[in-house]
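lol ok so funny story. i was supposed to be doing the assay writeup but got distracted and ended up predicting the structure for this chain instead. priorities right. anyway since i did it might as well share w the group, maybe its usefull for someone
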Amino acid sequence: MYKIGIIGTENSHALAFAKIINLPVNGKRLYPDAKVVGAFGGAGGDEASAQAIVDQAGAEFVATCTEDFFGKVDAMIITNRKGSLHMQYAMPFIEKGLPVFIDKPFTSNIAEAEALIAAAQKHGALLSGGSACKLAYDVQILQSNVQQLIASDNFISASINYAADTASEYDGFFFYAPHLTEMTLTIFGPDVNHVLALENSGTRTCILRYGKYDISLHYTKDAPASSCVLYAKNGNTFRNIDMHMCYELEVAAFINMLRTGEMPAPYESLVLPVRVMSAIEESVKTWHAVAI
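and the output, tada:
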């Protein structure tokens, strides 16, 4: 049995993940070999939200500090809304070599992201996490479409949007921006060279420059939906992006990592979105392209 702890219960993701792991569906648990056993609100959280994971998802205890999990868990989920809190809560478990899922944003700071990766590599800790949106079925279909268009020399460019709030109380742009950033890197690949970004009325429009094409990202503050347009020599493709089942897919990736000992993606895939978002922040301030 993989015993799992959760830190950062003020985030609704925490209860959602706990329910997916612990509660039966049609009388049968999806993961009978795993259980969320304890919860801790962490900074910005409260005991009531942690208690809800005990009351509603069948966890066994509410922790009052990080150390309460030591010796009681085999893996951790870190879900604080502020990415600036993730390093302090994830690092003690990474240093013990435990598998850790770190929710989006992985961090709100490049140096902290790199420090977590360095520690994971040193101690052999497996990591997963980031935005669940990159796992959406529509994102995977778009990725396949782009690969086929590039292989046939038909791809020209693309445009994609998702909501983000540059003034969020949870580390500003970094709170929601991982969704669009990670979807884009999944669909079009990690080989981004430069970023150019502008902001108008809370919405950011960004150009990601790849070797042979540019992709426009629209962090649309008030838009309720996400979609993508692929521009190609043989015709354009429009696709709405449905986020249904993203939580379930993210939990499945985490549990598979525990079972197989293999991470769903390389360490660098967790750091790159932080690099891109940091470059966007710098570009907005300077009105200049920023190298990744």
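Helices lie at 12-22, 47-57, 86-94, 110-123, 137-151, 177-188, 246-260, 268-286. The two ends are 41 Å apart (CA to CA).
back to the writeup now i swear
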